[in-house]
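User: Hey, my collaborator sent me this sequence without any context and asked if I could get a structure. I don't really work with proteins. Can you help?
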Amino acid sequence: MSDTKRVRTRFAPSPTGYMHIGNLRTALYTYLIAKKNNGDFILRIEDTDRERYVEGAVDVIYDTLRMTGLKWDEGPDIGGPVGPYVQSERMGMFKDYALKLVESGHAYYCFCDKDRLDELKKIQEASHIAPMYDRHCRNLSKEEVQEKLDAGIPYVIRQKMPLEGTTTFHDEVYGDITVENSTLDDQILIKTDGMPTYNFANVVDDHTMGITHVVRGNEYLSSTPKYNLLYEAFGWDIP
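Assistant: No problem. I've predicted the 3D structure and written it out in structure-token form, which is a compact way to encode the shape of the chain:
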């Protein structure tokens, strides 16, 4: 790899189930990329999905990595310079980052309730349209937003996707991939309970931990342009 920056990779499993062979494969590739380039292999536990949290799953992650010789250089049990390495222990910063995006015009408050969103989804499915938020709250004025905040109306914070143009990213396996920005949903960054979504916390954590290379399953290809637009909105280097 030609990048002169020290290579830092991460294996970031969610303990919503027991580690399986697919997880181990991802960990192996991540480990090998770091070690081939004399870099750092970081273990981060992404445990913010408390509803699906499986007791004992974290221990299985530790045991499996140790059994297979995939020794991490930084992690929850041994610490490191950019800890904590458990996502639920990093909660304080995510909303602050989301508010920075609101201030810069790259995100917005959404006050749509579950009933409205469910009805929207039904209409779209009946019309054979892929479910997607209709940006109902995207252009609320500052005064309208403040009025709703003062009234205590629950909200989420959504990413404001560009409506025109394309986003291109490079994948080491699939090459250059280009998507139309108009197809990207204004995804939720902060939920009504103040917790970050996986897609948002993932980007913030990777940046603040200095991750340079990311290994993901191909099911995340469709999310990658959204991640990269977040990096660009913050002015951060894209892994």
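In plain terms: The mean pLDDT is 94. You can pass these tokens on to your collaborator as they are.
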